[in-house]
Amino acid sequence: TQLLEQSPQFLSIQEGENLTVYCNSSSVFSSLQWYRQEPGEGPVLLVTVVTGGEVKKLKRLTFQFGDARKDSSLHITAAQPGDTGLYLCAGATSGTYKYIFGTGTRLKVLA
Amino acid sequence: DTGVSQDPRHKITKRGQNVTFRCDPISEHNRLYWYRQTLGQGPEFLTYFQNEAQLEKSRLLSDRFSAERPKGSFSTLEIQRTEQGDSAMYLCASTNMYREALLSTDTQYFGPGTRLTVL
Q1: Ordered alpha helix ranges (H), chain B
Q2: What's the rounded Cα separation, in Å, for the pair B106 and B35?
Q3: Selected residue with higher pLDDT from A98 and B26
Q4: Residues B21-30, buried b or exposed e (16+ Cβ, 10 A)?
Q5: How many CB atoms are closer than 10 A to CB B71?
Q6: Residue A7's beta-bridge partner residues?
Q7: Best interface-test mutation with A: which of B108, B109, B117 has the largest number of A CBs within 10 A?
Q8: Which of A7, A42, B11, B75 has its CA 20 to 30 A from that of B113?
Q9: Backbone angles phi, psi at A29, to 5 degrees
Q10: Do B48 and A31 touch (CB under 8 A)?
């Protein structure tokens, strides 16, 4: 069974602080995605990474895929209250057409 | 708005009753997924369709669950003889696999979900 563990599970920080969320697995993924989900809504895709060691930036968000494609991280610089939400990573293995979601990190940014 | 829509948004039912949810994917999306999400957890894959064909079902999908996509457009998820453990958010997502392959992306577009509460 493929498992994606995210850490931390909960994070409460002040506006302006930096943070990193981790997504780890013992499985190798062909691609990995990060989503943000707000209460009462479905997840919204932030980024897809496919190459080991790949780094992608989306404004204040930096995503990295591990060299061995088993782990990933999401770094947020100068967090804002609008960043509050549930952050989910999801990995797909080669030859499959479904993503396995991680356990989630609930972020709260206080003004 | 041409996003994925789900109906109803909320459903409260008594244990033992049957419920049916509907998902309308984005037009021309040939792949449709169903997920279940419990509070504080990530979505769990249930099943997916390519056009009208159901290609994979999770072991989470017991014989009380059935999904259909009869014309390759909208899909329904039915739960028979509901149990309290079925209480969750049921999410639908769709994608156009050919477009995503051309763009070298793999985006699933999620609907807002149907929140089921079984009393």
Answers
A1: 97-103
A2: 17
A3: B26
A4: bebbbbeebb
A5: 9
A6: A22
A7: B108
A8: A7
A9: -115, 145
A10: no
Contact B92, B25 (CB under 8 A): yes
Whether the pLDDT of residue A1 is over 60: the answer is: no
* Nearest neighbour of B43 by CB, restricted to A31, A101, A106: A101
Torsion, Cα of A23, A25, A28, A31 (10° steps): -30
| Structure tokens given for B85 | 């453990």
Which residue is associated with the tokens 């992608």?
Answer: A56
Tell me what the pLDDT averaged over chain B comes to: 91
Count the helices and strands in chain B (H runs, E runs): 1, 11
CB of A84 closer than 8 Å to CB of A13: no
State the Cα–Cα distance between residues B12 and B19, nearest whole angstrom. 9
Q: Is the pLDDT of residue B103 over 70?
A: no
Give chain A positions within 8 Å (CB) of B21. Answer: none
